[in-house]
Every structure is written in structure tokens, then in C-alpha cells.
What does this fold into?
Amino acid sequence: MEKSNAIILVIVGIFSGILSALVGVGGGIVIVPSLIYFLHFSQKQAQGTSLALILLPVGFLAVWEYYKQGNVNFMAVGFIALGFMVGSYFSAKFFVSAFGVAAFYFAILHHDFW
It folds into this structure.
């Protein structure tokens, strides 16, 4: 794998980890489109790779089916997972409280904002 692609995968993982910690999204909204747009994965390969990222907690059997069809890139999974762990850790540690303060501010103090 090229160094530039590995860097892109780690950045995708960090961004996905941050979003996951803040609002509970990641794979379908960030990882799959990023793999398709930036790294030119096929739709099925992007989906299979994203599923492999969450292999243990969620979808072993689904990943196995994608893998048998050649639609999982495990090297990409490793790099994204690295970034995902970093992004999740730091956003959970530092940004969640900032998000909570902002949500409280707009919801309670500026209810006319909406």
C-alpha cells in the first residue's frame, strides 16, 4: 500500500472516530464514501472493508461473506482502525464536553435559535 493511501486511511479513521464519539455515526456516513471517493474502492469493497472494521462487535458473518467474494481490504481496515481509535479516544476525552456545553447553550439559553 502506498504511504499516501495509508495516510488517507488514518485520517478517515480519525474523522470517523470523532463523529462516532460525538454523534454515533462513522462507517456508513464517512468511511464508505471516503473509500470510494479518495481511494477508488468499488461500492462493495468499501462496504466490506467498513464492515470488517466493526468485525468483532457486530458483523463477523457479514464480513465473512464479503471476504469470500474478495470485497474486504484488510490492510485498509488496519489503517482506518488505527485512526479510528485515536479519533475516538481524543474526541471522547476532550470534545464531548464541548459538544454538551454547546448543545445546552443552544437548547436552553437560546431556544429561539431554532
In short: The chain has one domain: 3-113. The chain has a mean pLDDT of 79. The longest helix spans residues 74-109. The CA atoms of residues 23 and 96 lie 9 Å apart.
